[in-house]
């Protein structure tokens, strides 16, 4: 059995070097398929980072009626801080709100003059709520609307941000569906391309295969060299692609944060190096081997 395996490995290795033109085309195909698969990975990463970027800047405020005791507001703050999915609840006091408003109003002399003439602070205490996901915000609003603290609340800015929040939720769901469809389409196209490349390789060895059949060689012995050949050009093609990808990301590392501050493809690659590269390689290898089996079965009737 060991001798048979060695002969299969040697035949596959020889096939890799004998069919130079087909090998070059197979390497190119593997590189292109690798590019498509990584485009799917990076698209998912990009849109995920974009959604995270928007979510990090998404919040809403609860403005309280004048005269509500700060102790009562602190109670509501503590309750919301323990609410599932809430990251942070910040209290902006009446005095802090006025100072913030004065700084923002410096560019408008009319507002600055009006604030100077006022003998009282027209602003109120309010809370700023930030959650992990947009889906958490409607749950918080539902709780507030039904709680006894609703009488303390004058205004909730969520209703202004509701459309933005709903769009982010919708965008997140659509992106996941689109990326899944993209990956499926890429795999189908890759299977067709690899099938035709392997078919050409098989036809170039048709005479040798027929001789092996005449002398009673097993199907395993005939298929084996082509499986080894597929593994070799898959491994080398993916390795060439990976080296080029790393080089490209390193040279363009300063460009990507200009799109989104938290978008770092080189970090994404190295942080998930073994998982993503292992997954991509085995997907391509699986497609190559499926193409090899189908081509052998259908066209050579082994």
Brief overview:
The chain has 302 residues and is an alpha+beta fold. It has helices at 2-18, 20-56, 70-81, 94-105, 109-117, 136-146, 158-204, 206-214, 219-251, 265-271, 273-299; strands at residues 60-64, 86-92, 126-131, 153-156. Helix 2 (20-56) runs antiparallel to helix 7 (158-204), helix 2 (20-56) crosses helix 9 (219-251) and helix 7 (158-204) crosses helix 11 (273-299).
Describe the structure.
- This protein has 302 residues and is of the alpha+beta class.
- The protein folds into 2 domains: 2-54 and 169-299, no CATH class; 59-167, 2-Layer Sandwich (Alpha-Beta Plaits), CATH 3.30.70.3040.
- 73% of the residues lie in helices and 7% in strands.
- It contains 11 helices and 4 strands; from the N terminus they run ααβαβααβαβααααα.
- Strands 2-3-1-4 form a 4-stranded antiparallel sheet.
- Helix 2 (20-56) runs antiparallel to helix 7 and helix 2 (20-56) packs across helix 9.
- The chain starts with a helix and ends with a helix.
- The mean pLDDT is 79.
Give the tags.
single chain; 302 residues; alpha+beta; Alpha-Beta Plaits; 2 domains; 4-stranded antiparallel beta sheet; 11 helices; 4 strands
Please estimate the helix content: over 70%
Radius of gyration: 31 Å
Name the structural class.
alpha+beta
For the largest sheet, list the strands in their spatial order: 2-3-1-4
Mean pLDDT: 79
Work out the oligomeric state of the chains in this entry. single chain
Largest sheet: 4 strands, antiparallel
Number of DSSP-assigned strands: 4
Report low-confidence residues grouped into runs of 5 or more.
none
Strand percentage lies at: 5-15%
**What sequence of helices (H) and strands (E) makes up the elements?**
HHEHEHHEHEHHHHH
Distance between the termini: 21 Å
How many domains make up the 3D coordinates? 2
Coarse morphology: elongated
**What is the overall number of helices?**
11
């Amino acid at each position: 059995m060991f001798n048979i395996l060695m002969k299969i490995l040697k035949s596959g290795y020889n096939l890799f070097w004998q069919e130079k033109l087909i090998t070059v085309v197979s390497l190119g195909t593997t590189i292109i398929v690798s590019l498509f698969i990584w485009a799917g990975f990076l698209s998912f990463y990009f849109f995920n980072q974009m959604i995270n970027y928007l979510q990090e800047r998404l919040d809403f405020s609860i403005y309280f009626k004048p005269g509500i005791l700060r102790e009562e507001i602190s109670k509501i703050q503590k309750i919301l801080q323990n609410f599932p999915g809430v990251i942070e609840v910040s209290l902006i006091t009446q005095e802090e709100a006025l100072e913030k408003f004065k700084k923002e109003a410096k560019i408008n002399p009319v507002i600055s003059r009006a604030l100077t003439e006022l003998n009282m602070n027209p602003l109120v205490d309010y809370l700023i709520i930030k959650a992990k996901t947009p889906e958490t915000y409607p749950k918080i609003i539902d709780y507030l609307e039904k709680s006894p603290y609703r009488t303390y609340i004058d205004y909730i800015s969520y209703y202004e941000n509701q459309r933005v929040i709903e769009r982010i939720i919708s965008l997140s769901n659509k992106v996941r569906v689109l990326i899944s469809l993209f990956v499926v389409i890429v795999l189908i196209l890759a299977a067709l391309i690899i099938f035709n490349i392997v078919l050409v390789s098989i036809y170039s060895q048709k005479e040798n295969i027929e001789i092996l059949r005449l002398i009673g060689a097993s199907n395993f012995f005939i298929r084996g060299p082509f499986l080894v050949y597929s593994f070799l050009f898959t491994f080398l093609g993916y390795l060439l692609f990976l080296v080029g990808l790393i080089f490209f990301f390193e040279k363009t590392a300063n460009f990507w944060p200009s799109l989104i501050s938290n978008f770092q493809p080189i970090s994404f690659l190295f942080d998930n190096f073994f998982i993503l590269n292992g997954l991509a390689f085995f997907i391509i290898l699986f497609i190559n081997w499926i193409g090899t089996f189908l081509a052998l079965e259908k066209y050579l009737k082994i």
